[in-house]
Amino acid sequence: MEEFKSLKKNWFVDGWIDFEYKKYELLAYLQKVDQLFNQNKLYPYFSDLIYHYSYVNEYIQNERDFKSNFNKNIKSIDLKNLELNFKSEFKKHYIIEEMLNIIHFAQKELKTSIDQGEELYELIFSKMTIDTVGLIPFYNKEGYLIVTKSGNNNTTVFRYKSSLIHHNNDNYYGLKTDKIDESFYNYSSTPSSIKVKLINRFKDLPNPATYSLHCDLNFSYEHSVIPIAKRWLIKQINSAA
């Protein structure tokens, strides 16, 4: 399959603003996403859908606010009900209306694809078993994640570190992961024995928070298992904060 290409941020106003053309552009993008979902590959495509959906919604809301705040003139006076009826001076334009048709269509189609992504997310997560390895210390913003999956004898170990990020007046946790060299453990190692080896090797974490994750199906590590595991881990860290 050819390399996945996302839509531009302002794809619906970029270049030729024509409903049929933009509809084709959007549906071609969504078809590629659907093909990847059918391969049980969730990320970064799911996040990409959410990004475009949020931006389209923001654009629609801004357009509504613009219309509602536009200068209005008095159209008539209702003396019986003591009401003033206003007429907006906002004038429709063909290009604007075409653009609005495009983004309203996009809003619906993107939401449908996001719903499909959420179903795939829940399916993959339901096939995961996540446990703690030993006791989890009070400080769990740094530690290790041990990952295995059915149909694959390899064990993958990640060292993680969470940090608080401030963006647009909001605070949220980011998670950096580094893959640990596989040379000091093998397929027969248990999570507990791996944790002991990690403690002996990395002295800066003498009592690390350690989690093990096993996936019952052979989903993609890069596009499904690890991104979902990281999202789960961020929630664990947030809940303990």
Task: Give the arrangement of secondary structure elements.
Elements: H1 19-38, H2 45-69, E1 72-78, E2 83-88, H3 94-126, E3 128-132, E4 142-149, E5 152-167, E6 170-179, H4 191-201, E7 209-215, H5 221-240
Parallel strand pairs: 4-7
Antiparallel strand pairs: 1-2, 3-7, 4-5, 5-6
Helix pairs in contact: 1-3, 2-3
> How far is it from the N-terminal to the C-terminal residue, by CA?
42 Å
What order do the strands of the largest sheet run in, or round the barrel if closed?
3-7-4-5-6
Shape: elongated
Reported for the largest beta sheet, the result is: 5 strands, mixed
Total strand segments: 7
Instruction: Please state the CA-atom Rg, rounded to the nearest Å.
Output: 25 Å
Compressed to H and E, one letter per element, the order equals HHEEHEEEEHEH
Number of helices: 5
Regions with little confidence, pLDDT below 50 for 5+ residues: none
Average pLDDT, to the nearest integer? 84
Structural domain tally: 2
> What is the percentage of strand-forming residues?
15-25%
Give the helix/strand class. alpha+beta
Helicity range? 40-55%
